């Protein structure tokens, strides 16, 4: 742990950071490491950069890829912190960098995340507005993806924490992830969405209790 503290300079992995601090750190890592670069894959509802960090030894595109993201639920601060810890772990492991490309989206929901730092600590959703009669804001971005959208485990009430949005990928935050991943043309072999609720590894699916055919394959590797 002491080595980890020293190697990261002034940026501590043992405290919580807001969104601007995290983006500045990602840029710093890219400037210091030839195998690291950042990419802005879109803008949030409020105009914040959706910036990912890519770790690709020898350049991106020639190896299978891993996607890891955090902070889709704004109040779960340990999620971006864990994503940061994980990316630093990858940077210290030559084998992981030699054999895989890595994509880290540390804060998927920057508007909501920053809102928890500046206003309401337990805010969960994005900060979009979809004509709520009661003035309620935000969508549960984790329930806004297009695969079996609105088929269970979410709410159509715009004031609920589990509101799935007016349509799939209504949120620029989820649409940006979709577009980036589709552009990889199947190279992304593993997608890990980090949360802080409970001590669980959740496997597919969320819309049904029927497991996929290869569920035990997932289970044996989790």
Tell me what you see in this structure.
The radius of gyration is 18 Å and the shape is globular. Strand 1 (36-43) and strand 2 form a beta hairpin. The protein has helices at residues 2-7, 19-32, 78-91, 94-99, 110-118, 172-183, 215-221; strands spanning 36-43, 49-55, 65-69, 101-105, 188-193. The chain has 222 residues and is an alpha/beta fold.
The proportion of strand residues reads 5-15%
CA radius of gyration: 18 Å
Q: Which structural class is indicated by helix and strand composition?
A: alpha/beta
The coarse overall form would be globular
The residue-averaged pLDDT reads 93
In spatial order, strands of the major sheet run 1-2-4-3-5
In total, the number of strands is 5
First CA to last CA: what distance?
25 Å
How can the largest sheet be summarized?
Answer: 5 strands, mixed
Low-confidence segments: 1-7
Provide a compact summary of the structure.
This protein is of the alpha/beta class.
Comma- or semicolon-separated keywords:
globular; 7 helices; alpha/beta; 14% strand; disordered N terminus; five-stranded mixed sheet
Draw up the topology in text.
Elements: H1 2-7, H2 19-32, E1 36-43, E2 49-55, E3 65-69, H3 78-91, H4 94-99, E4 101-105, H5 110-118, H6 172-183, E5 188-193, H7 215-221
Parallel strand pairs: 3-4, 3-5
Antiparallel strand pairs: 1-2, 2-4
């Amino acid at each position: 742990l002491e080595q980890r503290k020293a190697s990261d300079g002034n940026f501590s992995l043992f405290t919580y950071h807001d969104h601007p601090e995290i983006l500045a750190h990602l840029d710093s890592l890219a400037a210091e490491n030839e195998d690291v670069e950042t990419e802005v894959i879109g803008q949030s509802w409020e105009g914040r950069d959706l910036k990912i960090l890519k770790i690709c030894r020898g350049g991106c595109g020639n190896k299978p890829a891993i996607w890891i993201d955090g902070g889709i639920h704004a109040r779960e601060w340990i999620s971006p912190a864990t994503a940061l810890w994980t990316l630093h772990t990858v940077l210290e492991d030559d084998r992981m960098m030699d054999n895989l490309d890595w994509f880290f989206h540390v804060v998927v929901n920057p508007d909501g995340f920053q809102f928890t730092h500046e206003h309401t600590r337990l805010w969960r959703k994005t900060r979009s507005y979809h004509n709520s009669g009661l003035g309620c804001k935000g969508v549960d971005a984790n329930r806004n993806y297009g695969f079996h959208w609105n088929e269970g485990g979410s709410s159509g009430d715009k004031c609920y924490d589990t509101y799935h949005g007016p349509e799939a990928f209504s949120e620029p935050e989820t649409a940006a992830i979709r577009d980036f991943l589709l552009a990889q043309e199947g190279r992304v072999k593993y997608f890990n969405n980090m949360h802080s609720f409970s001590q669980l590894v959740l496997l597919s699916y969320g819309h049904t209790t029927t497991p996929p055919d290869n569920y035990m394959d997932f289970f044996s590797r989790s």
